[in-house]
Amino acid sequence: MIASIGELLIDLISVEEGDLKDVRLFEKHPGGAPANVAVGVSRLGVKSSLISKVGNDPFGEYLIEELSKENVDTRGIVKDEKKHTGIVFVQLKGASPSFLLYDDVAYFNMTLNDINWDIVEEAKIVNFGSVILARNPSRETVMKVIKKIKGSSLIAFDVNLRLDLWRGQEEEMIKVLEESIKLADIVKASEEEVLYLENQGVEVKGSMLTAITLGPKGCRLIKNETVVDVPSYNVNPLDTTGAGDAFMAALLVGILKLKGLDLLKLGKFANLVAALSTQKRGAWSTPRKDELLKYKEAREVLAP
User: Fold this and answer.
1) Whole-number Å distance between alpha carbons of 273 and 243
2) Nearest Cα residue to 281 out of 1, 77, 81, 28
């Protein structure tokens, strides 16, 4: 089982292209990077759980219902009586989105009392990202969970940098990201994130595997001294909102499924899943296992 811990929220995606101040219509979609990964893992045929916090409100109910439809274990989702469910406005310009994320929401209010330890202890991989670390008490909570399981489960960290969330806390952000990377067995980051962090003196390296997404160029996988560049699977993207999370879901599933961690097979599979995810709108865009089995790159991982 793969468990993800972190933000679960509503993406309000602009129907029209343009600046948020100009657009009038939005579509409601479920989102939050750990939730997107949890759904992706489930669609790829692996047992998946999410640990998060939503408000005791209609949006929170909607998100739990939608996760249940995707066969994601929702026992780890707690309702907050005081804070509302998180909301993000997503602005589309071409296929590349930008985000306006609201603060002081339920997932940032996650405490140790909210953690379902049965899920954490059952997981072979525990996945988290940087958004949930931008505020307390959620930062302290997640870091305590990760430190407690270090060595008993594989830890996967997605840098997923959102600089707007860290305004005025840049030094703290670098410290938190560096600590998270050092704790992680598997680290995923974009090429831009790697450059940014290296300029701040932070080495982006997972102790077992580092995955660097290169946009239209594909990805780079690094294990010890072995570096493999894997070209992208070419498609015309409609919406790249969930592509990084689809890549992460495929990466984690591939790590569980592949014997001996074949970097080329792993990279081809993750690139394929990410590319196909851009053919649908919204962040829950990972293709399902039965759709993927017609591709050799997927069969080598999902049905070897």
Assistant:
1) 8
2) 28
Q: Are 282 and 241 in contact (CB under 8 A)?
A: yes
Between helices 243-257 and 263-277, what is the axis angle to 10°?
150
CA-nearest of 296, 221, 239 to 29 is: 239
Which tokens sit at 191? 């090429």
Q: What is the pTM of this model?
A: 0.96
pLDDT of residue 100: 86
Count other Cβ atoms within 10 Å, centred on residue 178: 16
Could you read off the pLDDT of 238-274 as tens digits, one per residue?
878 889 999 999 999 999 999 888 999 999 999 999 9
For 42, the 3-state DSSP assignment is helix
Do 256 and 297 touch, CB atoms closer than 8 A?
no
User: 52 vs 7, 55, 281, 299, CA distance in Å?
Assistant: 6, 10, 23, 32
The pLDDT > 70 percentage for the chain reads: 98
pLDDT digits (tens, 9 = 90+) for 31-51: 999 999 999 999 999 999 999
166: which 2 tokens? Answer: 């860290």
What is the number of alpha carbons within 13 Å of residue 78 lying toward its C-beta?
22
CB 36 within 8 A of CB 281: no
What pLDDT band is residue 185 in, cutting at 50, 70 and 90?
very high
CA distance 246 to 303: 19
Which CATH number, 3.20.20.140, 3.40.190.10, 3.40.50.2000, 3.40.1190.20, labels domain 2-8+32-83+109-302? 3.40.1190.20
**Tokens 């407690």 belong to which residue?**
148
223-246: average pLDDT: 91
Do 134 and 226 form a contact (C-beta atoms < 8 A)?
Answer: no
Q: Residue 53's beta-bridge partner residues?
A: 78
Per-domain residue ranges of the chain: 2-8+32-83+109-302
DSSP designation for 73: B
